[in-house]
Amino acid sequence: MREQTPALIQLGALGTDVFGYLTVAENNKEIPFAIQRVYWTYRTPTGVKRGMHAHKKLQQVLFAISGKIDIELDNGKGKRVAFALDTPGVGLYVPQMWWRDIFFGENAVLLSLASELYDAADYYRDFEEFAVAAKAL
Ligand code: TYD
Q1: Is the sign of the CA dihedral 104, 60, 40, 26 positive or negative?
Q2: Any idea what the Cα angle at residue 58 is, between residues 71 and 12, rounded to 5°?
Q3: What was the pLDDT predicted at 1?
């Protein structure tokens, strides 16, 4: 399987400082897949780390729709990349088979647009197990 690359997606913003802003995400347009599931994470105490898993199949685009969220992605083969999300109009595309560590800033709200319905069997929750599988691809 050819490795997909994580990337920031600029969705932009419609509006003005006077009236406020909105950002739009549509299937197979700004978002490079059909969205099957949306979830959001909130009231996470400052400095808490979440994520700590990789997905076999699922792709997603993550947004910090409020606050700041630092995300570190690891391909299990020695490549680690860091992203800082702090703009609601910018998403982070996370392909399948990338381990994610997610660090929440104060009052941060993470929005996730996912390519699959929830499936516990799609997760690697042990990094070493993930790394063995990633190297075998
Ligand atoms: P998890 O994916 O580990 O969240 P995070 O990566 O943000 O730390 O999910 C936390 C718990 O919620 C876990 O028990 C699985 C459950 N869950 C669902 O039942 N459905 C879902 O769509 C998601 C995302 C999680």
Answers
A1: positive
A2: 55
A3: 62
Q: What is the pLDDT of residue 47?
A: 85
CA distance 49 to 28: 30
Ligand 1 pocket mutation pick from 94, 117, 118, 127 by most atoms within 8 angstroms of CB: 118
What pLDDT sits at residue 45?
95
Nearest atom in ligand 1 to the alpha carbon of residue 37 is 22
Paired sense of beta strands 90-94 and 123-124, if any = unpaired
Output the pLDDT for position 122.
Answer: 98
Share of the chain above pLDDT 70, in %: 99
* 8 Å CB contact between 52 and 101: yes
The beta strand positions in 3-129, using DSSP E, are 7-10, 14-16, 20-22, 37-41, 49-55, 60-66, 69-74, 80-85, 90-94, 99-104, 109-114, 123-124
Q: Is the pLDDT of residue 2 over 80?
A: no
Task: Give the integer Cα–Cα distance in Å for 98 and 80.
Answer: 9
